[in-house]
Amino acid sequence: MKNNFSKTPINDFIEEYSRSSPIRLHMPGHKGKNFIGFENSDVTEIDGADSLYAANGIIAESEKNASEIFGCKTFYSTEGSSLAIRAMMRLIDLYAREKGKMPFVLAGRNAHSVFLSSAITLGIKVDWIYPDKGNYLFCDITAERLDGILSRLHELPVAVYITSPDYLGNISDVNGLSKICKKYGVILAVDNAHGAYLKFLSPSLHPIDLGADICADSAHKTLPCITGSAYLHIADDSPLIFLERAKSAMALFGSTSPSYLILRSLDKLNALVFDGYAEKIRKTAEKVETLKAKLMQKGYKAVGDEKLKITIKTIDYGYTGKELNAILRSSGIYCEFYDDDFLVLMFSPENDEKDMRILEKTLLSISRKPPINELFPDFYVPEKITEVFEAAKKPSEKINVENAVGRIISEATIKCPPAVSVIVGGELVDERVKALLVKYGIDELYVVK
């Protein structure tokens, strides 16, 4: 018996269209002729192909299938979680104004840069929840801590925004945070870009299932989709305006030429999930946990609790992340991310036994050295001078970090990955901030003139 989501309406339409050998008097200019190899499947909004931001045909049908899988209203993004996050922020902005409030979001400081650019574009006030200590990529927000913060605020935010899983693989207590948000009547929005697969664990750890109102997933990060494939998920009990304006919010920021290669990839994934892919994810998670245990027995220190990610705190093993990455590269292994302190390895069911065996052999062959004692500087709260969107509007200039003390940041300077800001617009650079910037290799930055 086939469920609806075992069907692939977008994929079927494109295959049928390609087989018919049409005369393509429409975009794109390659006309279906192969220059790279995929062009025959690359179409645009021709008759029957539907339209992403006004879907009422095959895209609407495919999104409905995805919604059945995720148990909420699910919309496709062909521009990654970046578009879905911008849409989330637009919906939060609309919800605030519908309530007669100015948009104000309380966010974990390890938010992706697209959150900042959205706040700047939409004029949303942002206050930060800072990490207690440690790396700027990590921001532990417990339910108890959030409760304390919200209880002391004179003005409640419209939404709380968290990143879970974060870049290092730490997963927040979304269920606990959701209960606190409901207690105070605020929205819980989650950047779940690294956690689309969490839906398919047993039990599900997906933010929507744990009580989030709205979230963004990057399907391409952990599921077998091509780059740019992503979702915007909206819970059934979220504000009605979220559902009513989701498509227009995405259209506000999205390209008018969405990729049908990406839509086809998302469409095919629905059938894959129905055909046993969820079980493959669970088995892969078990293999990753087994490998992680072997590495820790050897003396490696792993951080984070993500099931398809191993993050090694390399300095405890006597190496910088850069040094360990170079060793892996010599064995043909490319990691997701490394810096002085950490190395991040991401897995999916498409990593076969050979991949796992080579990685295990390589890591276990590396001799442990004395720990590197140069710990990363603790993060602390920079002085906020003005709102991030106000700073972005002021005339600015680029200067060397050595000359930045006493200046106000105009716009965040980031590296991608991980696209998380050490310091954001409107904040003051002092000696401690300068030390952080130097630590993370930021040489130049924009400051308010």
What CATH architecture label of the largest domain applies? Answer: 3-Layer(aba) Sandwich
Strand order of the largest sheet: 1-7-6-5-4-2-3
Count of beta strands: 14
Q: Structural class given helices, strands, pairing?
A: alpha/beta
Count of alpha and pi helical runs? 13
How big is the Rg?
A: 23 Å
Strand content range: 5-15%
Name the helicity range. 25-40%
For the sheet with most strands, the description reads:
7 strands, mixed
Mean pLDDT: 94
- Fold-level CATH name of the largest domain: Aspartate Aminotransferase, domain 2
Quaternary structure classification = single chain
Say which CATH homologous superfamily of the largest domain is assigned: Type I PLP-dependent aspartate aminotransferase-like (Major domain)
The coarse overall form would be globular
**N-to-C terminal Cα separation, in Å?**
66 Å
Secondary-structure element string: HHEHEHEHEHEEHEHHEEHEEHHEEHE
Uncertain segments? none
Brief description of this entry?
The chain is an alpha/beta fold. It is built from 13 helices and 14 strands. Helix 3 (80-98) packs parallel to helix 4.
Description:
With 449 residues, this protein is α/β, with parallel strands linked by helices. It folds into three domains: 70-259, 3-Layer(aba) Sandwich (Aspartate Aminotransferase, domain 2); 278-364, Alpha-Beta Complex (Aspartate Aminotransferase, domain 1); 388-448, Molybdopterin biosynthesis moea protein, domain 2 (Alpha-Beta Complex). It is 37% helix and 14% strand. It has 13 helices and 14 strands. It has helices spanning 9-19, 58-70, 80-98, 113-122, 143-152, 174-184, 219-222, 240-253, 260-298, 321-330, 353-364, 388-393, 431-439, and strands at residues 73-77, 104-108, 125-129, 159-163, 187-191, 214-218, 230-234, 302-303, 309-313, 337-338, 342-346, 396-400, 409-411, 444-448. Strands 1-7-6-5-4-2-3 form a seven-stranded mixed sheet, with helices on both faces. The chain has a four-stranded antiparallel sheet with strand order 8-9-11-10. Strand 4 (159-163), helix 6 and strand 5 form a beta-alpha-beta unit. The chain is globular, with a radius of gyration of 23 Å. It starts with 8 loop residues before the first helix and ends with a strand. The model has no long low-confidence stretch (mean pLDDT 94).
